[in-house]
Every structure is written in C-alpha cells, then in structure tokens.
C-alpha cells in the first residue's frame, strides 16, 4: 500500500473560525502554520494559549502546539494546502448603493499574501462567507500574481494548483463538535479542484462532504443564513403582533409548534452576530430587485431592537424610582462574543438615556465595552442584581440567568425578551396596556 504523507497546511486568519479549524486539522496529524496579521494573536497561540472563548478550544490548542503540530506566524510560508478564513464584513455606510455592499478586501489580501509561495500541486480553499463569484475573483487575482502557474478554469491543460470554496457552518459555542461532524459543501472552480479539496476535508471531517461548483457553494452558505434570518423574523414579527393584541407570544408559539409541520423559532431582542445579520445582505446586494422577502426579514429583525428599546424606555420611565438590571450583552446565550449584539446596542441606548439607573449583568465580560466608559454605569453580578434591582430587562438567555428560581425574582418587574422566565408573575406583557410606548 502506498504510504501517505500528510499535507502541510497554512490557515490564513486565526479568528473564531480560523483558529479552531487550524487546531482540528493539526489534531488530525497535519503540520499547520496559522497566519495572522496580529503579532499579539500569534504570540498568544505560540504560547499554547487562545485569544477567544470557545468550548474545549484551550485544551486542544495547548495540546497541538505542545506536540509541534500547530504554530503561528505573521509571515507566510510554503504549504501544500491553504485555508483562508478571514472576515468578510459589509460596508455599513456609504452612498450610491455602497451600504450593505460586501467587503471582500481581506479575502483578496489573503490571496495576495499566499500567491508568492504557491507551488505545483497546492490547493487553495476559501472558507470565508463570500458573495457569489468571490472564489473566481480570488482565482483571477492569483492568476495575475503568478503567470507562471496554470490556473484552473483558465487553462486547457492540467492546472498546477486547485482552488475551491468550502464554507464553514459551525455554531459558536459548539464549534469543535460541528467542525468535525457537520456535512460540508465543497465547491471547486473545476470538478478536479473539488475532488482535491474533498480529499483534504476527509482527513478531519466525519460529516458527509458533498462536492459542487464554487458559485453554488458560495450561494448555499448565504442561503443557509438567510433562511434562518427569515424564520427568526417571522418569530420576531409574531412577538410584536402578540404584544399589540395582548397575547403571550411564548404560549402562542408553544402551541403552534405542536403541529407536526410547524417549527417557529424563538423571538428575541433582534438578530446579532456577524453571520445571520450580515450574510442575507450579500444576496440582496447581488439581486436587489429579486429579494423583497430577504430584505424585509432583515428590516423586521433590525426593527425588533428598536421595539425593545421603546418598550424598555416606557417601562423605566413609568417607574422613576426603580433600579434597572439589563441581563446580558452577548449576541446570544453562553458566549463571550459582543460584536453586532442587539443586547449591547439596546443596553447602551438605555444607559445613554437613564445613566447609572441602569446596571449591567454580563458574566462573560471581564469589563464593559468601550461605549460604557465614563457613563457611571456599574457592572454587577446576577446575585447583586437580584438583591438591589427592581426592574429586570432580559436580553440574553445565558444559562446562569435561566436557572434563577422564581422565589428569588417573584417581586421583580421583568421585561423578558427571550422568554426565559415564563412563570414570572410581574412580566411586562401583563402591564403592556398601561405602558405608554414610544411610536
Ligand atoms: N436568534 C433568535 N432566535 C432564534 C435563533 C437565533 O433571536 O430562534 C438570534 C440569536 O440570539 C443571535 C442570532 O439570532 O442573536 C444568530 O444566532 P444563531 O445561533 O442563529 O446563529 P450564529 O450567528 O451563532 O451562527 C450562524 C449559524 N447558521 C445557521 O444556523 C443557519 C451557523 O451554523 C453558521 O456557521 C454561522 O451563522 C456562520 O458563521 O455563518
């Protein structure tokens, strides 16, 4: 039997996706170089430590660094496989339709970085969520930088390198498990490219790996997150409608979900994170005339944040002597990720209006984010909040909040945007008629 040598791998971008991916590939026995622009991130990883919070990642990184399988650098080096996992944000502002336009500059920069070290036989895989056509754009950039290489899709001969798109699908908080067990869509620039990338993923993915073309794989990733956004929008719209009708949305959804073909998601204070609130725009931007539903869902989910702010403001104004606790800043439960978080946005707006009457409870934050500096607002723990605060605004469904027994919160006035305390006697929905809500 042919003895097989394991490919050396370079992972470009050591963030929430890149670092766990690098560690899982290293665990499979491949020698991995992680590349990042931050010297601080590189130094942290080379000490066997991590700069992000993710279940079991610390032990894994420590182990693979100690075994010499993972190292990090700010300098690129030759490898057999390159995995690009850099951010693809969108432009938040900008005139002339630039608002919400995808920004693939980090992907192209990664392409420029690896191009000089590419050699015959290498495979380049893009994992970053990208608008349709980005893998071809990356391919064209590599072709311009390396006219000496035969590039897939641009040559009639056997290409020197392979280029493919394979989006990550992992859920923060379950990244290591999902990296290994989720199915993967692998889109090649050509079928041969897809087969090369498939052979690589088979080394560490237990889920099924399905091959397709690069553009379909790009669209698949966007569609997955847009699907979830549209479904969350439905739940959020229901919560606003139920509110207006004096109904308990949690009860309505619980009952509707008993239907065998109905599965309504959970309302919340809006949709956060850098995937579901972003990726649908990549589809809308690509086909603005043909995406009324996807665009509207984004609007509904963004509007939910403002609905919560208005309702919370009405509640706090109606109780001028009350001390207020805002529970959670993270974009979802049990993680320390505060980027694009509705809870953080809502809390900061309440702080701007009510100042130190607001107290922030966020067990996953060592300190409050920058916009809370000099506001006089205190970060307290849940025990202190239960002892000292009168109004509770639940913005994140962290487990540590969920387990607070009724006896400890029965007297509190609660606005529960996540439905974690369904038995709360003094819940805002019962007071809704008495609240003067901002328009
Ligand atoms: N949310 C609700 N109600 C729900 C579900 C979620 O309000 O019923 C909110 C959350 O609180 C959060 C936001 O939506 O603010 C997004 O959370 P999420 O758990 O739905 O998703 P993410 O952003 O953590 O990860 C998503 C996942 N995509 C899908 O489930 C289709 C993940 O698999 C992707 O890998 C990830 O985006 C990504 O990187 O694209």
Bound molecules: ligand SAJ
Number of domains: 2
Query: How many whole angstroms does the radius of gyration measure?
Result: 24 Å
How far apart the termini lie comes to 73 Å
The chain-level mean pLDDT equals 94
Largest sheet: 8 strands, mixed
Which fold name is given in CATH as the topology of the largest domain?
A: Rossmann fold
The first-level CATH class name of the largest domain? Alpha Beta
Which residues form runs of ≥5 with pLDDT under 50? Answer: 430-439
Total strand segments: 13
Q: Can you give the helix content as a percent range? A: 25-40%
CATH superfamily of the largest domain: NAD(P)-binding Rossmann-like Domain
Summarize the helices and strands and which ones pair or pack:
Elements: E1 9-12, H1 18-27, E2 32-35, H2 39-46, H3 57-66, E3 70-73, E4 81-84, H4 105-114, E5 123-126, H5 134-145, E6 162-165, H6 175-181, E7 184-188, H7 191-201, E8 209-213, H8 214-245, H9 249-256, H10 279-286, H11 292-318, E9 324-327, H12 342-354, E10 358-361, E11 378-379, H13 382-388, E12 391-394, H14 399-402, H15 406-409, E13 413-416, H16 428-431
Parallel strand pairs: 1-2, 1-4, 2-3, 4-5, 5-6, 7-8, 9-10, 9-12, 10-11, 12-13
Antiparallel strand pairs: 6-7
Helix pairs in contact: 1-3, 4-5, 8-9, 8-10, 8-11, 10-11, 11-12
The structure holds ligand SAJ.
